[in-house]
Structures
1.
Amino acid sequence: MVLANCRGRWHGKFLPAASKIAGCLPDTRYWLTMLLLSVACAAMAQQAAANFAVAAPVINMYAHPDSESEVVSQAIYGTTVPAIERRGSWLNIRTADGYTGWVAASGLRAVGGGSYAPEGRSVHVTALGANLYRDPDVTHRAPLLQLPWEARLELVSSHADDSARWLQVRLVDGETAWVQQGDVSAQFKPLTIPEMLKLARRFLGITYTWGGISSFGFDCSGFTQMLERQRGIVMPRDTDLQAAWSGAAPVGRKDLKPGDLLFFGSSSARITHTGMYLGDGEFIHDTTFGHPGVQISRLDDTPWTKLLVAARRIQ
């Protein structure tokens, strides 16, 4: 079932049939038929506009509607995503960076034409992991959810407890929960490059996860994309696309400055890894080399010194 491009289905499927009808039916019946087709198309367009909110802490986005296919990226709790297509229990979604992939429909909740946690009524997780509870207490019950960095939550009207330590939030499924104020923020202030590099070190030791974009596990390009997002910059998701992105300018190795992006591979035409320069010959990256996870390496060390094929500076 296609959730978008109604015009394509109209021209590709319905018009030939309508042309045949026009040749053999009276005008009234012809225009009634066309009216019904218009209504059907409008209904499809309305369905295409329907948004969904991610209802699990992190969901995998697959290359095909099959959990055995490659994980291409992920989506995080509370983010609103439009659906492009449905196949059985799978939806093809598009994230804010333009990335598309198939997700299990069970990991989403429909929010109609609106969004979950709209501006002015939302907070985002600023801890590497935040527990949500049924009551404003950490001892009464086990956490309902543990959410990663950047997950979004919608505040309810009477959102603070008496001590102002807790905020009450509405979950994607409509239930309410409590989160500690120290784990979230309602503000977003773009970071400077030094602030971004300081933040990057908070993620040291976070495991490597192919396709990962969250504090539960990044891949190399998901990590650098997340860091740049804290500066208010949205850049492409994949390493090769980041290297080719028009928003970044080439920079020579001898001219590197903290915050520059480094790209590694067998050649400039085959880039497979990325990291961020810290200064003094060091860079931070999420890699499987040595021990999987976010770590700091030296640019002059093997294998990195021979694999560096490009560097970019965000303009």
2.
Amino acid sequence: MGQYRGAMSVKFYIPRCRPVLAALLALGLLLPTLALAQTPPALPGPDIALRLPRDLSPWGMFMAADIVVKAVMVGLVFASVLTWTIWFAKTIELMAARRRLRAAIDALGAARSWAEVTARLPSADDGAAMLVRAADTELRLSADAMAPDGVKERIASRLERLEAAAGRRMIRGTGILASIGATAPFVGLFGTVWGIMNSFIGISKSHTTNLAVVAPGIAEALLATALGLVAAIPAVVMYNMFARWIAGYRALHADAAAEILRIVSRDLDRGAFEQRPADRRRSVTAAE
């Protein structure tokens, strides 16, 4: 009777333990898979680890870059320094020239005769002083031919040439900004293409696609593109800024020339230049 009860209890507990046994069996099958999943990936070989740069700062990437990429970066840095140097020098030159022209235009507007103009404006080699000196030279050369229309036409021709020369002189140096703005992005792109090409060559030699091997070379290559943009964007902005400033400077030159022509026309109508016998005698003697 006791044996019968023991057998019945075993048969009763076996169905109730089946879920537990199934869970233990599944856990036993999953443990090797989990252990493999927890295993870290294989590290690159010692040669690859030695070649990986530890410093990924801009200077570290520059030092680890290829010689061609280094040359591209150095050229772009030099172009950026040249851009800011031109901006500094040209800004000072333009601001000083415009200030002198405005002061000269005010003096010309307050003058009532040509004698006051020659007395007020200094004999400098720039700005309105050159215009006044050119007009006075033409008046001296035309002392024996004081036809108002002819004199004004010859003076206007001299002033136009001086205005064009002043514009060419002031625009000097801004062409470098245009060249840098147009070519720097493509130079940086060349360095990027060269660096990425070297990265793929390194992948083929090391027989690995580990991102730790590829990333430093790509970062160095992209640094060249970044330097190209750093050099090109300020150059384009500065070139456009100087184009507007130089146009305003030429407009001030035209205003000064118009003031000079008005004063000369006023004195021609008054007959003021007919009272310069010394100039007339000098021109006649030179002609003989």
3.
Amino acid sequence: MTKFFQKQIRIYGAIFTLTALFSLAPVPVRADDFRVEANNSVIDQAGRRILVPKPFKRIISLYGAHTENLFGLGLDTEIIGVSKNAVYPPEALNKDLFSYHDDPEKFLAARPDMVLVRPMIDRGYPQLISRLEKSGITVVSLQPGNTEEMYVYWEILGILTGKQAMASEMITRFKAAVSDFKSLAKTVDRKKNVYFEAIHSKMKTFSQGSMAVFALETAGGINIAHDARPVRGTNIAAYGKERILSHADDIDVYLAQSGSMNRPSISMIKHESGFKVIKAVMENQIYFVDEMIVSRPTFRLLDGIYEIGRILYPEVFYPNAIGILEKAYTYRGLSLKD
């Protein structure tokens, strides 16, 4: 990714603040287990009904995607704490750090009015959650599993923080960019078959419908492990070496996410027992993509689509897709380009 687009995503939150000048209707979307009830009422993934008579103003985020999206909505001042593993955007590093391992008193001393968590934290640390709620702090549990749920999630964040117009603009521009990427991918003469690795040590891939597979298919790639089944309701799917090798002659590109969940290397993949017969391995078509731009429900999923498209079809994506990203990170004709 170029420094230009890294700069784009760092400051797109500032661009979103301009949308407060306009009245944009929320996009009407729904998900099964969390939803918008009204313009001041939402249901989170734990089934909590959260009434929002006024926007929350002192927010602690315990999930990196929450943090990134809140900054994207222009909520720098309202964010008073982030998780200890928060790395993006750079402004998050200036915030106080919190963990679900911390004593509840640390949270109470910060006087938040809302703490944003993921369902796994909600379920795994009931004593912390209960103490926060008994102290009058609103806890909201959210983690979308696909793009349709991601739109609902963004809409909910907008309602919770009084940034509905910004959230709506975020959804609109994301969808427009996806449409443009799909149109570009249609110009590719021959689509490539891709095995998309999620966790190398366990031979796991991504399930169909996951955000990672959405990024792959939007970029024009064919998911060769389309029959993979999710593990315990997650977006990760067990596939196994035998099934991978059954597609050895057809895998044009071996793609792997890289980050805290998976730390692959070309040598590791090339020297994996049996992998030398895979077409992509033999032809040195092994590539990595940052997990933060393919596995998280943030606006940077567009960057993931771009990166995958550039890997698969450089002759098509490199000269043409940059304009799609530039348009996505530009608001009402105001360009961020230097």
